[in-house]
Amino acid sequence: MSILEHLPHANVKRLEFGRGIANDVGAQFGRYVVATMSIPWNVVSQRIGKPPAHVIDVPDMDLENAIALEANTPPCDTVVAVGGGQSMDMGKYIAWKRGIPLVNIPTIVSTNAYVTQAVGVRNRGKVEYIGEVTPELVLIDYDLIRAAPPALNIAGCGDILSIHTASFDWQLAHTAGQEPRGYVHAAVERARALVQRLDESASDIRALSDDGIRAIVECYLEINDICIPLGHYRAEEGPEHFFAYNVEYLARRTFVHGWLVGLGIQLMSRLQDNNPGEIVAIMDRLDLPHSPRANHLTREDVVQALETLRARTLADERWYGIINQRDITPEFIEQVAGELEF
Ligand SMILES: [Zn+2]
């Protein structure tokens, strides 16, 4: 029985797990096009069997590029996204624009783009969500995913562990009378159980065994099932993300999302007095990189990001939480900086 039967809002119509299950699937897709990048396609093109009618080499998700690439794509029955987040985003864009079925074959689980609804593009540097798509089929081929760098696959845990600090903030906002969308305790309890599930699967995840990969994917499906009916990802996105957005804003470069969110979880769980030792221990058991050093951040970078965090969070009109409520004092910054690895 498929897990999807228990998760009506998982945002995936059909899901298959297995070793080598992407082999020879090309013949199932009619006349199809592939959205991909050179590294994953070099591997998957050898295995997929019947070749696609056209291959879209995805440079980025800049709106102008997406429009031009879609216009150059021949008529087709199906779009198949092969690779990581950007390939999935382009696959979603084509499927949304043309109203054709989308098949996702992620070759890495560092992000959750293979199961998210939103079609995201970058318009003049800013991310915009222009539509929603539900994939017809997601193929999780363990062999393909294990071929990706392990620390990048494990980065996929960041957006699950963020439940620890995000759900805390949601509850805090509710208690402070600052939660206009309402607070759903059952959603928070379900979400928190996913952090426990990751911890219980830590040795499998660290080893990226079949069960470990499956645990990461199933947690994302359950997050969808919790959050999509609510209309927001409040249980999963909170101050750890707002910290990460501020770091990105200041540094003007990209980061491995899950590693930067990991640093945000460490710092914000400290600010919240929310079992920081426990969540850091879970990150370490999973081998999730979360230090400033892993993120190529200096002490000055982290200090500046903390000093400007409230102003940036207010300017961006983020959800109410600990950043609004508790001052980030020089003493606090001094103390936490002493606990970090630079
Ligand atoms: Zn995230």
Task: Could you tell me the CATH topology label of the largest domain.
Answer: Dehydroquinate synthase-like, alpha domain
What's the β-strand tally?
8
Reading the helices and strands in chain order gives: EEHEHEHEEEEHHHHHHHHHHHHHH
Mean pLDDT, rounded to whole units? 96
In quaternary terms, these chains amount to single chain
Question: Low-confidence parts lasting 5 or more residues at pLDDT below 50?
Answer: none
Q: How would you explain this protein's 3D organization?
A:
β4 (78-83), α3 (85-98) and β5 form a beta-alpha-beta unit. The protein is built from 17 helices and eight strands. The protein starts with 13 loop residues before the first strand and ends in a 5-residue tail after the last helix. It has two domains: 3-146, Rossmann fold (3-Layer(aba) Sandwich); 150-337, Dehydroquinate synthase-like, alpha domain, CATH 1.20.1090. α8 runs antiparallel to α10 (210-227) and α11 packs across α14. It has 342 residues and is α/β, with parallel strands linked by helices. The relative contact order is 0.11. The chain has helices at residues 38-44, 63-71, 85-98, 142-146, 150-154, 158-161, 163-175, 185-200, 202-207, 210-227, 239-251, 257-271, 276-286, 299-307, 309-315, 322-325, 330-337; strands spanning 14-18, 32-36, 54-57, 78-83, 102-106, 118-123, 126-132, 137-141. The strands form two sheets. A six-stranded parallel β-sheet has the order 1-8-5-4-2-3, sandwiched between helices. It has a two-stranded antiparallel sheet with strand order 6-7. It is globular. The structure holds zinc ion.
